[in-house]
Amino acid sequence: MKKKALVCGAGGFIGGHLVSRLKKEGYWVRSTDLKENEYGNNGADEMILGDLRNPELAAAVVTSDLDEIYQLAADMGGAGFVFTGEHDAAIMHNSATINLNVLEEAKNKKIPKIFYSSSACMYPEYNQLDPDNPTCSEDSAYPAAPDSEYGWEKLFSERLFLSYQRNHGIQVRIARFHNIFGPMGTWTGGREKAPAAVCRKVAETPDGGIIEIWGDGRQTRSFLIVDECVEGIRRLMNSNFSGPVNIGSEEMITINDFAKMVIGISGKKLSIKNIPGPTGVRGRNSDNTLIKEKLNWAPTQPLKNGVKKTYIWITEQLKVSNKRHSIIH
Length: 329
Prior knowledge:
7-stranded parallel β-sheet; 10 helices; NAD(P)-bd_dom_sf; Nucleoside-diphosphate-sugar epimerase; Epimerase_deHydtase
């Protein structure tokens, strides 16, 4: 008998890659989202379009024959979306409503196991003020003080999932993602994350030009290629560990150095101009001590490999979109 899985948020970047992985492993997969995956990463056996804020849709997609649910559906985006404050009410309301609906149905239909994608954004801002020494070990989450409402909602939802595990016996697995990037992800339009935004800026800028980076560029991050994120999700689901656990890279880099890496890959001669803009915390890096201990695994791919793949893919997307634009005009 094939295992049956539901992927919520499959129209998104990580969700699309996860569907492909589950299909490769021989699962029967149902996927659901507001929209189709825009890059054709739509390998599910059944795709149900709809809004998980609607309890009726949640009731329709969560069926009692499922072995696993992967809950990645959320209202989210990069710094330009999350940190301006303009979307706070929508982010909190939409994501919390989705989680409440999906969990309640999972409880009612007695689904054995559910995965929830949390985020490193739930870590306290006070531990991420020094860009060279951020603290993001799983046990540093409390006293809680995330730097955004997006982070607060993630923290609330972690507790929500764990309370359903305690009270209703549903097995829960929680991962805190650290800046996942790669091909077939949002790269333009305001919701893209930093790696895609920088790759796009470099690809768009003619040789000898200038690219703009928000803030002083000395803020640090680590970025994880999506294949390793999906590998981590699958290993966590197959383990006896509930989490929360970090899924991220420990290869920390400043945003300016990241931009220089992309410029190097492009072969162009470009300069960087730092401008005011939303930046999030000063420093963030995955701490992989716990994942190594519990899953005997941690991501190992060098950042540069993933950046090369992503830059090439975004360059191709730009060519396609420019061609389309010139045909219209």
